[in-house]
Write a structure and sequence with these properties.
three-stranded mixed β-sheet; elongated; alpha+beta
């Protein structure tokens, strides 16, 4: 699995560099296969908000020209502003994008735009469609448990920008506006959403210039502001006009109820360790085991074995001595001789390793001692006669070298910030709110953007506004 991920990472880099890309044998080919890969590897949001997004999405589907067409709507639990579509009706929206929206109509606009990409078959028509499955595989390759999921999400967004041109984006906006109108929403929500995203892009450019970082761009944003974009306004107006006495749905209240309490920014509560990583928060260390290994824990002892159950390793936690790790082996463990004896130095921790001669026909057994704090961590490998000795010893060496201290500060459980709604008073200002909520340097701008008041303006008394706390 590791080699597959590394291969796809290379595949992704080559593809983005404009070099020829070869399809991997096990790259997902259909939208369903790609969806299964994403579900298996990306953090997904579940519960009331995910159900609400699906419910809203299915309302769009009911008004499509082909009533038999099926769509699946999924919320990815990531703070990045992104949404994308896969062939066969798989639509994705990041939690981060939802935090910037202000009504159900705006949510429908985003989903309808992505549905438009699917119904217009843009995946097949795009210039880079031939590497679509490879891009997904490359995206997932970034998720090797050591990279950030947000990086993968951003890479996917980059691929979509490369694949769709201005004409396809306009076509998706036109179809999305049509679906908005047919579902009873004001098509103007499409321009409102793009305006909001454009404001966010302007804000990110300003922040990026100050920090020297690259600006994230949501696919579909134009170089000019959408309210001044004549072609965009033309395609949106094609969807139809509602009677003057007919108030198109915005459904602000249901949206507010569904998004109350949703996570803002990084979701620390979903950050979990891979199954092959053992972490001891009390003693502040962790060990990585090969993916096919399984481990268990007892008092002062971690035991692990491979799936064949012919190679095992014990990690015993003992009190260290004043002697060197090498002499600890001789005096504390009563092992006078080890073969291929060598000193260890990893993550500034001193240790020693070698092989204890096997008895009764058994292979030599890997042994290691690592000093960390007041303790000695003793690794003892055991190999059965029928096992692949070289492979087992390679696993032992990998396990020993993975032992590392972790910062206790990093182990402090952090609670994510969340979105909450309150009614503004006549004294409410975004600057005072940002200061009171301790939102930092850009807090006022963030509050303005998520409340659709960027770059200036103050909320009106009695108006519902979003807070981040």
């Amino acid at each position: 699995m590791i080699y597959r991920n590394l291969f796809f990472t290379l595949l992704l880099i080559l593809g983005f560099a404009g070099l020829p890309v070869l399809a991997a044998k096990d790259a997902p080919e259909t939208g369903k296969e790609m969806h299964e890969e994403i579900v298996a590897n990306m953090p997904l949001l579940k519960g009331k908000l995910a159900d609400y997004v699906n419910q809203v999405g299915q309302r769009i589907v009911r008004h499509l020209d082909d009533p038999d067409e099926t769509f699946t709507f999924t919320v990815i639990d990531q703070p990045d502003i992104n949404a994308f579509a896969l062939p066969d009706g798989y639509i994705y929206i990041n939690r981060g994008l939802i935090t910037y929206l202000n009504s159900e109509a705006q949510l429908v606009a985003v989903l309808a735009h992505e549905v438009g990409h699917v119904t217009a078959n843009h995946h097949a028509r795009g210039e880079r469609a031939q590497i679509g499955s490879s891009v997904v595989s490359g995206l997932l390759a970034v998720l090797t448990r050591s990279a950030d999921v947000g990086e993968a999400s951003a890479l996917w967004g980059t691929s979509m920008v490369s694949g769709y041109g201005r004409e396809m984006e306009l076509e998706a906006d036109e179809l999305g506006s049509k679906y908005l109108f047919q579902s009873g929403y004001d098509p103007q929500a499409m321009i409102d959403v793009i305006s909001l995203l454009k404001d966010h892009e302007r804000f990110e450019k300003q922040r990026a210039q100050e920090s020297g970082k690259k600006t994230q761009t949501y696919h579909g944003l134009f170089s000019t502001h959408p309210r001044n974009d004549k072609r965009l306004r033309e395609v949106v107006s094609k969807s139809g006009s509602l009677p003057k006495n007919n108030n198109a749905e915005q459904n602000i209240t249901p949206f507010r109820v569904a998004t109350e309490g949703m996570v803002w920014g990084k979701n620390y509560e979903t950050s979990s360790l891979p199954d092959n990583v053992y972490q001891n928060k009390t003693l502040a260390f962790q060990v990585y085991f090969p993916e096919e290994w399984r481990f268990s824990e007892q008092a002062q002892l971690i035991q692990a074995k491979n799936t064949q159950d012919n190679a095992r390793i014990d990690i015993t936690i003992m009190k260290r001595s004043l002697a060197t790790p090498e002499n600890f082996i001789k005096k504390q463990l009563n092992i006078p001789l080890i073969k291929k004896s060598e000193a260890l130095l990893q993550f500034r921790l001193k240790g020693h390793t070698g092989f204890v001669p096997g008895e009764n026909g058994l292979p030599d057994q890997r042994l290691a001692v690592i000093y960390y704090g007041r303790r000695a961590y003793v690794f003892r490998g055991q190999i059965d006669p029928e096992a692949d000795e070289d492979h087992a010893n390679s696993d032992f060496h990998q396990i020993i070298k993975s032992f590392r201290p972790i910062s206790k500060r990093g182990l402090i459980e952090r609670k994510p910030k969340t979105i909450h709604y309150v009614k503004a008073t006549e004294n409410t200002s975004f600057a005072r709110l940002a200061l009171h909520l301790k939102l930092g340097k850009y807090g006022e701008d963030e509050l303005r953007i998520i409340n659709n008041y960027y770059p200036a303006g103050e909320p009106k008394s009695g108006e519902w506004i979003k807070l981040i706390r």
